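User: Predict the complex.
Assistant: Input components as received:
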Amino acid sequence: MKKKIVTVHVPGNLNLEQSQKVLAAVLGKAGHPHCYSGFQLSFESVVDPESLVFHVDKSLAVRGVGE
Amino acid sequence: MTFQPPRFGPGAVYVRSLDDLFWSNPDLIKVAEIEPQSLWTKGTEPGSQPRGSPVERRRLFTLPQRLLTHGVGYPIGGTVCDQERHIAEFRLWTDELSSAWTSEHLSIFHVRAADGVLPCGFLMPPLQTDAQVELASDNIRRRAATLGRPFAFETGVNYFLPRDCEMPDGEFFAAVAEAADCGILLDLTNLWVNHKNGRANIEDVIARLPLERVWEVHLAGIEFAHGYWLDAHCGAIDPELTELAAEIIPGLPNLGAIIFEMAPDRVPIFGGKALLHEIETLHRLWDTTRSSVPAAPVVSRQHLAQDSAPTPEAWERWLANRMLPPGAGPFATGSIIEVRGVDEQSFTLYKLLSGTFRRGAIAELLENTTRLLLIGIGERALRDLLDRYISDTPPFAYPTDEALSFQRFLNANPVPVPGLEDMLKFEATLVESAADGNTIQATFAKDIEVMLGDIAAGRLPGPSSDRETVLEVGVNPTPFIRVPDKSTQAVLPS
């Protein structure tokens, strides 16, 4: 029996919206950190969005950063 | 010194997330300070050089502000001071953005370690001695010559208390500026933090500076944590510092720009509107420069016995031994530098701050891996895991290298979480592709889209994600993720 090779193309048009967003985030944050300064909060914002870092003003009033 | 900077006015450090704000407020934001390295990517191969996007550079050139470049990766305070490898790219950005002058930090970042040169994880202060003045001024002269631009160094934050062998801060800055014949980027927030932490009285520092050399001022928000005031770039300028700046700035006869600094991770918290409010404050300060008063005479130098001061090399070995993981440091310091009790506290802070940048790089570039670990093992175990990673491995300058280092660490120290291997591989593939500009094809045992949905919902990936997936990732030049055309050869009977 003779054999015949058939090539089937599956187009890459699946919905990869979330993956694209992850790639965009990586591209936007691949650079060297800006001036090293105080705390970098990115990890805290992933783990605990209610950040543990507080601002203390000159009257020693304590509040969450950005409040 | 013949350079007199043009009067640009108030502005802010450019961060990508604030791009719209720069475009829509040219009347308020007069200057965009570009930190080129923050916009570059670095390849993953050892020795590869960071590079910027010509498209982004050309777009930045069309911003409605005057542009200044400010270096953040290659400070001029140490014995390891790159004057070659990154210079061509930095010069290209400085030239094409028509930066009237450029600047970098008077700090130490790269140090010699057991296996070569490593970044130490944070901008560290030099020891303020005559030998250090000579070293820094030589570095500045070479940097200015290779960049072909007027150059200013930034006065740094210093979380150590002064040592007996050091000259006072203002005297040190003045000596470097005079020896290098360069400008000064007067970071008033750094000096304010040093003042509040008890290192140096800010008025004493200012009194010793050659104020005609101050071309630029930086201002930013500070915060208090772990017993120290931090130059955190976190929000509004301390009102007390604003009052002080209003007294200092009229005495700066050659001031070209006042720049507000905001760390990118604080932008979502602080917000664009609040940032514009700070720029309004800068305008009020800038207005006082129109009636500049003659600079006050510089306070004469103190004479200090520095014969027994550690050399810059010994100081850097001392820093490296404390900042790098055990076994990575250079070990022998060459001279004995006393570790005071207060130094232990300072090192604890520096390592803590360095750790936040390292964890931040992982959380930003491997965000879903981090979230999956959080779901799988909990916050405490995740923090312990990252602490172990940070204590066992040296830091990296670029977050892409840090993320891939963490991938290697996890591969060598597997954590039993469903889907972790695939999500880590997926995100590391994105990082690698972004860093190298290559197209990479990878096979996963799970459906990445389904996994991303599970993680976003706060649950571990279930059986519904068990499906082999082949993805192609590239940024060449347009970023994409796609399922590659799959040519399946089926053998059929004729």
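Chain A touches chain B through 55 residues (CB under 8 Å).
Let me know if you want any component modeled separately.
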